[in-house]
Amino acid sequence: MDTKKVIFKPELVRQRRINSDESARESSVIGKHNISNYFTQLYGFLYEGKVRDGKRQEIDIVLNDGVRNFHPDLICFNKNGKTFVEIKAASVKNGEFYCPVRQLENYCYSLIKGVKDKKGIVGVDYAFFKYGDSHRLKHLTTKGNAHLVDVLTEHNKYVTVLPLNLVLFLVPLARYQEMDQTTSSFHWDSQNYIKIPGGLIRKMHNDKKFLEELKEQFKSSGVLGRDNVGDFFLDDLKFERKRCEGLPVEYYNIKFMDPFFISKYYFPNGKYQKWLGYFYQNHERILTGLGLDDLFVRKKKELAVIPF
Residue 237: which domain range? Predict the structure, then answer.
């Protein structure tokens, strides 16, 4: 066996020396970006995914109020097509996972457009990483990359992978928040987020039976109507949970990652195509009911009023 192929080697952005308040802020932004880099590359390492380099968008969604630049964190290929993967990471001190609304709308558009263009099956997965130890999280983003890698390697708690239908199902069970983005890498002042409770993800990670409780919460939310839980084909999902241990991580030196569990929800063969076809036929009703912008319908309406 070629040992080079079984060693995870994260590539991170070089940190800056802190000598002012401005450099401290920049260092914090770089550190947060590197946490995302670490887990994105880890998922790509485990599932042979191609990490996006940020130089080219997969789809540019041109709308009257601007262009949506769509760039998933990873792309995984299989015999049926490709799966876009979005990585979300939260520390043990942060109780929620932050999912930008615009980003979720972009992923929905990619699915719908993929079906329309008949370019193979397109899937979308969200991978939720929980990490950290409460005693070692202080200054995690500013203490240097070696320290950051040590903490993430030794305290990667668990990973929960959800397909897009399940993420959409969770939207009414989460809460919205508009956050300032002026100090981030985004190019707008604020952005709306869907904040999914970490406890909810943890319970889904531990046992698929928790979905039955979530179904009742969904029905009582009043979104889409009590009878529309079936829009998400939850009963067709399979659940697997496996232990990952002893993974060597190299950054200056080699450390072995603490054991952690990966829980994954997925459609078995043929079932995903069934939901995808249903979503394609009903996306406007479903997305509008969830309070999301259906970019496919919006773009179609905007094109219809352009004089030729």
Answer: 3-300
Our count of domains for the chain comes to 1
Q: What is the pTM of this model?
A: 0.89
Average pLDDT, the chain: 84
How far is Cα 192 from Cα 197, in angstroms, rounded to an integer?
Answer: 16
Q: Is residue 212 part of a domain?
A: yes
CB 102 within 8 A of CB 119: no
Ramachandran region of residue 67, left (φ > 0), alpha (ψ -120 to 50) or beta? beta
pLDDT tens digit sequence for 184-239: 554 455 689 999 999 999 999 999 999 999 998 888 877 665 568 999 999 999 99
Would you say residue 306 lies in a domain? no
DSSP notation for 141-195: TTS-HHHHHHHHHH-EEEEEEEEHHHHHHHGGGSEEEEEE-TTSSSSSSEEEEEE
